[in-house]
Design goal:
Length: about 350
Amino acid sequence: MTVPERSWVEISLSAIAENYRAVANLVGPDVVIAPVVKADAYRHGAIEAGRVLEAEGAQWFAVSNTSEGLALREGGIQARILVMADFPEASALGFTPVVHSLEAIGRVARGAPYHLKLDTGMGRLGTRASRHEIVAAVAAHPPEGLMTHFATSADYIGSQTAEQIAAFEETLAALRKAGIEPRYVHCSSTIPIAYGRREAWHNMVRPGMAIYGYVSPARGDAPPRQLRVRPALTWRAAILDTKDVPKGARIGYGGGFITPRAMRIGILSTGYADGLPHHWRAPGRVIAAGQWAPILGAVSMDLTTVDLTAAAHSKPGDFVTIIGRDGDLIQDAQQLARDAGTISYSLLCGIHPRVRRVYVP
Ligand SMILES: *Cc1c(COP(=O)(O)O)cnc(C)c1O
């Protein structure tokens, strides 16, 4: 007997490949793409995504830490691996570490490549040393790459990104003047790629979210989006039970939700232990049989209750769509995140490993 799946994600490998090609077409052949596959490729599966991307021509990957790099190697990935948020000793494992302070350059294996990160204003990782200090410190072991990361690249109202670019250019110019030419120069994640901030592309880009099919909306007077991608992940859950409840029935923990009318409700076999946001409630909704089914009451650990009145023929064993398309309706991670007071990145990365992944072409 096969037991039906309780909650699962379907990941389209062709969507990942197409999204990579869309980035490649936009940035052109002179810009190297280092797809970001940290957090298990934003939960799409780093090895599976990595294999597809490598087959598409990716010669670099960016991860957060060495265990993510080792997982890629165990999965047969041969490309260069940039480790963005770990220690410079990662060089001894054959990875290319990002080095965040001038002192740490000495901890990179002798002669091994490293990328130096500048904190140009994000206030996170990266050196804040002056360009003179940087030029002096790297002379004996120059970096293969120079990079920074933007704090507010979607914001076309403020000037922080322009200031960060200016600070980065100053250091890059000082290095060049001293005869040091980093082979890879990179600042851009998805948003500066997608909105065509070309002055920030240099010769390498680090797209994460775009590869999985999302570009966050920009604020202010942004140029038109130049990148077209589509979400690679569909998230579904089974209906465990359905029933009719009268007007005035309390639903779920806390008893705070009271049905305003008689309703057909469905109890889904998924909850916050799978990564649904606990704060997801009306206007949050799933799609059942091509109809919207609003969330009722609080999401529980393993269960979530929805209003199936509009999809009254749904029965136990049917599935609902949490993220993805069903019939004419689509819900994507950005919509769901907005309803739940979170962001699409956190939502995708929060999909628990117990939610089985199914790969589809
Ligand atoms: C996560 C990350 C990226 C990718 O960001 P997206 O917005 O997903 O494209 C790029 N660079 C650094 C340093 C990151 O931490």
